């Protein structure tokens, strides 16, 4: 659980720092246009800090870290997020500085998105395996309240 809290904390620090970087770089360069740099901090705070705080709560409820798939999720998702926001930051910085970003940055960012998706799939599989089984056996249908009314007690 400490690892999840630490991960959320790191993303909070980097997210806030990236917002400061965006503000100061655009102010220094007198840049008033649109760039991907403006949403890097939002991505880090949402997909990093908030996401891992939610996973921390899910860990408390379902002991997700006891599944071997959890380690795969953790590292694949983090690598995907770092690649994605790294390419966003690079692309945005190049835009602010007046340079063309090129297609390679978009391609690498696409790899980051693919890894994020794979990490999310692994997380959902992990959660599904850790959910408690249904209380009612699958062969026994649920009672229909219209057909099988509850008997009144006197």
Please give a quick description of this structure.
By secondary structure, the chain is mainly α.
Main traits of this protein?
4 helices, transmembrane helix, 154 residues, membrane, DUF2871, single chain, mainly alpha
Q: Overall 3D geometry?
A: elongated
Q: Largest beta sheet, briefly?
A: none
Query: How many individual helices?
Result: 4
Strand content: under 5%
- Quickly give the structural class: mainly alpha
Q: Give the overall average pLDDT.
A: 91
Number of strands: 0
**Termini, distance in Å?**
51 Å
Rounded radius of gyration (Å): 23 Å
How many structural domains does the protein architecture include? 1
**Percent helix among the residues?**
over 70%
SSE string, helices as H and strands as E? HHHH
Low-confidence stretches: none
Can you characterise this structure?
The chain is an all-alpha fold and 154 residues long. The chain has one domain. It is 70% helix and 0% strand. It contains four helices and no strands. Helix 1 packs antiparallel against helix 2, helix 2 runs antiparallel to helix 3 and helix 3 packs antiparallel against helix 4.
């Amino acid at each position: 659980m400490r690892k999840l809290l630490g991960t959320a904390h790191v993303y909070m620090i980097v997210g806030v720092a990236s917002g400061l970087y965006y503000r100061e770089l655009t102010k220094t360069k007198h840049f008033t246009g649109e760039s991907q740099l403006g949403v890097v901090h939002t991505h880090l705070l949402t997909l990093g800090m908030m996401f891992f705080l939610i996973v921390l709560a899910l860990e408390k409820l379902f002991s997700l870290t006891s599944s071997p798939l959890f380690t795969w999720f953790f590292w694949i998702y983090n690598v995907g997020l770092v690649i994605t926001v790294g390419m966003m930051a690079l692309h945005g910085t190049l835009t602010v500085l007046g340079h063309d970003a090129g297609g390679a940055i978009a391609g690498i960012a696409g790899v980051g998105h693919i890894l994020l998706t794979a990490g999310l799939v692994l997380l959902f599989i992990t959660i599904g395996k850790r959910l408690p089984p249904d209380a009612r056996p699958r062969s026994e249908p649920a009672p229909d309240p219209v057909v099988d009314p509850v008997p009144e007690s006197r």
